[in-house]
Design a protein that fits this description.
Mean pLDDT: 94
Structural class: mainly alpha
CATH topology: Hypothetical protein af1432
Strand content: under 5%
Helix content: 55-70%
């Protein structure tokens, strides 16, 4: 199976109608690709994995075996997707119990949750522009448990540890990656309130 980034994007958009979830997967892609480029990994494979990790969430939000991410993985397996991609997608969801043993799985897991914190922090800014967001502001938001309550802070810390990187170096990497794609993520100040 030849799975390039553009094919993955088409699949993601055909499975996902909601702009918010699409933007989330694009944010995760930006972060995962930053790591792929830094580490000399297969950028297309890593980008495709990030774009497809939540592709079934809208249609199958149940976390049981008939839901997310099992449905996506079954579909992708039928299409011949590589096991490293499928394991990473399964491993990004703690409820599956699939261990994250590859670098791709660890990077996907580490980038997934933290993009939500960065997106939320950008959207509460008056200008709604992630490019103006600073790491020190994210540190304050991270400590404020009332801010972006849905972000699993313990999971963010655990993911950085699994990845073997300093938490704030990791957050900075993801922030810079998202800032570079601000227009695609609708975080460039033009997003409607």
């Amino acid at each position: 199976m030849d799975l390039d980034r553009d094919t993955a994007y088409r699949w993601m958009t055909s499975w996902t109608e909601g702009e918010s979830l699409r933007h989330h997967m694009l944010a995760v892609e930006a972060a995962v690709v930053a790591y792929a480029e830094r580490e000399g990994a297969d950028v297309d494979l890593w980008a495709a994995t990030a774009l497809l990790h939540d592709m079934d969430y809208e249609r199958h939000p149940d976390l049981g075996e008939g839901g997310h991410p099992y449905v996506a993985v079954a579909h992708l397996r039928e299409l011949g997707a590589p096991e490293v991609m499928l394991d990473a997608i399964l491993g990004h969801a703690d409820h599956t119990g699939v261990p994250r043993t590859t670098r791709l799985a660890k990077v996907l897991y580490a980038c997934d949750e933290v993009t939500g914190l960065i997106t939320a922090a950008a959207l509460v800014r008056p200008d709604k522009d992630v490019r103006a967001l600073e790491l020190r502001s994210l540190k304050k938001k991270f400590k404020d448990k009332a801010f972006a309550r849905g972000v699993d802070r313990e999971g963010v810390v655990q993911a950085a540890a699994e990845l073997g990187v300093d938490l704030w170096d990791h957050v900075a990497t993801v922030l810079v990656a998202m800032q570079a794609r601000a227009d695609v993520l609708a975080l460039d100040g033009r997003r409607a309130v």
